[in-house]
Amino acid sequence: LTAHFSLNTYTITVNAAPSAGGTVSGGGSYDHGQTATLSATPASGYTFVNWTENGNVVSTQQSFLFNVTGNRNLTANFSMEAYTVALTANPANAGTLTGGGNYNHGQTATLTATPSAGYTFVNWTENGDAVSNYPGYSFTVTGNRNLTAHFSLNTYTITVNAEPSEGGAVSGGGSYDHGQTATLSAIPASGHTFLYWTKNGNIIAEETEYVFAVTESSTITAHFETSNYTISLEASPAAGGSVIGSGIYNPGETVAVTAIANPDFVFIFWTENGEVVSFDEQYSFIANGNRHLSAVFESTLALYTIKAKSNPAGFAIITGAGYYTENDWVVLNINPIDESAVFVGWEINGNIVSRDEQYRFIASNDMHVIAQFTHNQRIFSVEAASIFNDVLIKGTGNYPEKENVILEVFQPDNLKFIGWRNAAGQIVSRSNPYSFDVNRDVWLEVLLELKTEEEMFREETVTIYPNPTDGRFYVNVENPYELEIRDTSGLLVWRQSLEPGDNFVDIAYLPLGMYLLNLYDTEKTISRKIILK
Questions:
Q1: Which residue of 244, 254, 380, 420 is most buried, as measured by CB atoms within 10 A?
Q2: Across residues 308-329, what is the average pLDDT?
Q3: Quick one: CA dihedral 281, 284, 289, 290, positive or negative?
């Protein structure tokens, strides 16, 4: 008997994962023990990974050989290729780039190049070769790529003009790279003055040199105008005199200035910026620019020394002493150091001349003024008041015990003096001035009443004109008088004899304000007010 056998035949199945990842071969029918040779060929953009069976790796070789002993189902696994797209800007700070990174094979990369301010995009290059002239560049990724975006620095044109063209010279125009500093200059022609720079009709600078960073092409215009020069004058000191000839002059025009000295002053010279330019009172020159000239005057009056101290020494600090020209105002003030000290008054040559803490007078000779204080002696206050305005009372203040007090009132011409009344309502005197020795605090009321029309009519006519005045005026009287002028504090500032008719008075050196004029003869006093303004 013969036993017959047949050789087993098996099926080898091969697959690609993913199917697009590559091609496989070697599958089919094999006899038992036969050698099967499988091959895996990756498609473009893919890489072979391994062979698996039932999820288990059986080989990492693209070509897989084995003896067939049974049916098998094998899979060739592939992975897609991943590429890097690298981007570079040239110059580095010239722009921003987007679209670089990692891409799978076959993906579309979209690159964008955005220039920074002052730059313009040129092209994309790879390995020195231009690949695109557009800032937006798209392509299919099939491998690693290294791309460079090229930019160029902008160049601008600055054009400068003069308006009008004959007004002056301009410089600084030309070609500039972005961010470069341009310096424009405008030099006025003779007889012209620079005004400003404009751009597109708008004023951008007012200095002759204009410096800026260039960021665009532009046309800039320097504007000029025909010059008119200002000649300004001053008198130094202001009281020294007057000046004539200030004003506006055309270029090349002759300027004639004149200095006129006031009484008690002489002209010395003209100065400009502290430098002497002429010793002539009448000074002529050609206008070729703005000028400020000072006419310097010098007083012909004497120079006096005013000394001041406190008594006892150390009771107060005295301010205001020094050197003064004749007719200058002197103002002395006390700043007490000893708080227990009581100010008595200002003394000259043993006589109290003022009891006000501020003593004002006009310098007329060398003087030694003493501020008298006391703190051991009894001090009494002497005060006086009136219900009428424009009434000046002289002599009030602090007095040591038993010292003689002289009160005097100066009233307008429409009021007549009646007497002095104390706080108890008693009339203590009908004299003006009123003199008494002080032994207690005193308060007095000045009794005045309005004159009747008949009384006003009987009074002599006194005419003052002009009033208000600049300090120079006339006083017309019918009879001789002695004129005294006092300020509102009672300080005597002027004395003069008057003759019948017009009498010229010049107190222009005094500060502006109200002053009281008193006209005296042997029988009466006439008071008037005058305003300096």
A1: 420
A2: 88
A3: positive
- What does the block give as tokens for 235? 């008198």
What tens digit of pLDDT does each residue of 382-398 get? 999 999 887 888 888 88
* Alpha-carbon gap, residue 40 to 52, rounded angstroms: 12
Q: End of a domain among 57, 80, 103? A: 80
Shared domain for 149 and 160, answered yes or no, is no
CA distances to 36, 392, 528, 530 from 462, in Å: 153, 20, 9, 13
Q: Tell me: do 90 and 120 sit in the same domain.
A: yes
In terms of residue numbers, what domain contains 243? 230-299
Are 142 and 177 within one domain? no
Task: Compute CA distances 282 → 108, 248, 279, 453, whole Å.
Answer: 94, 18, 9, 56
- Is residue 135 assigned to a domain? yes
Q: Please compute the mean of the pLDDT values over residues 312-331 and round it to a whole number.
A: 88
Q: Residue 108 burial by CB count (10 A; 0-12/13-18/19+): exposed, middle or buried?
A: exposed
Q: Look at strands 218-226 and 35-42 and give their pairing.
A: unpaired
3-class DSSP state for residue 328?
A: coil
Please say whether the beta carbons of 386 and 396 come within 8 A: no
pLDDT at 442 over 80: yes
Using the 3D structure, point to which of 299, 315, 344 is the last residue of a domain: 299
Instruction: Give pLDDT tens digits for 486-517.
Output: 887 677 888 899 999 999 999 888 888 888 88
Residue 460 has a pLDDT of 66
For residue 376, the tally of other CB atoms under 10 A from its CB is 6
* Beta carbons within 10 angstroms of residue 104's beta carbon: 12
Q: Provide the whole-model pTM.
A: 0.40
d(CA 497, CA 441): 38
Convert the pLDDT of each residue in 5-54 to its tens digit: 889 999 999 999 999 999 999 999 999 999 999 999 999 889 999 999 99
Residues paired with residue 476 on neighbouring β-strands, in sequence order = 463, 502
Average pLDDT (313-333) is 88
Percentage of the chain exceeding pLDDT 70: 98
Chain centroid to Cα 501, Å, comes to: 59
386 contacts: CB under 8 Å, gap ≥ 6: 393, 409, 411, 445, 446, 448
Please give the structure tokens belonging to residue 16.
């690609």
Q: Which of 494, 329, 520 is nearest to 410 (CA)?
A: 520
Average of pLDDT values for 228-237?
A: 92
Query: Rounded to an integer, what is the distance from CA 410 to the centroid of its chain?
Result: 51
Instruction: Tell me the per-residue pLDDT of 112-158, one tens digit each, with 9 for 90 and over.
Output: 999 999 999 999 999 999 999 999 999 999 999 999 999 999 999 99
Q: For the chain, how many structural domains are there in total? A: 7
Task: Count CA within 13 A, CB hemisphere, residue 58.
Answer: 16
Same domain, 97 and 66: no
Distances (CA, A) of 510 to 434, 493, 530, 532: 30, 8, 12, 8
- Taken as a whole, the chain contains a residue count of 533
